[in-house]
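EI: anyone free to look at a 254-residue chain?
SC: sure, send it
EI:
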Amino acid sequence: MKKILIPALFALIFITGCSLDVDRSAMSPEERFKYALGLFEDESYLEAITEFESILIQYPGSSIAADAQYYLAMSRFKRDEFLMSAYEFSKLINTMRASQYIKDAQFMLADSYYELSPVYSLDQKYSEKAIEEFQAFINFFPADPKVEEAERKILELNDKLAQKMYSNAVTYENMGMLGAAIDYYGYLVEKYHDSKLSPVAAYDKIRLLVDRKRYKEALKDTDLFLSRYKGDSNYSKVESIRADLLKLPQLSVQ
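SC: here you go
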């Protein structure tokens, strides 16, 4: 029984593992790249990384170097090594500007940072980097079909940054640091005016301004709210606040 199984086992190893015995030293740069690309397409990303890195070391000035750089970055991305993929995409963009993959690399650089973006309560440096790189993609390639996805992801990331800022404002308010809370609510409205939290922050700022008896500022912000957030759930409340403010002697002439 063993004599039958052992030859069969060696045959199976030969069939499935023949790629390990491929003599790559005799290959041209183009053949080597084709071999590496085959590994990538077979989703053998770790092996593909080794091959693409070898190509870049052995043939740095060849016609396929930029292609190898792009697929090295893509292999890292496919393995969820997003910090490494960002580095490799950035390397292509900065050193291989004539590559046919520049546009795709710019989008994937942004997408690598997007994947690194954590929950809103943590440090948002990767969210900010993703927004920066998506915006660069939009600016340089405005007609590309992926612009719509880039814009959608920017809005999503801005909502996350706004959520972090709103959380900070609420924390300051709960601590009784109302001046700081007003500043944070106002900064959110100014910087993330497209965020779904913008009208909420605008209302909370008005509410605190009234509480602090900063009536002129509150009146100015009610005008801004009513012009910008028609249909918001707090719209009628802001109308009522504005009407009450206009009844004050010091504001009745405005």
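EI: The first helix runs from residue 2 to 16.
SC: 👍
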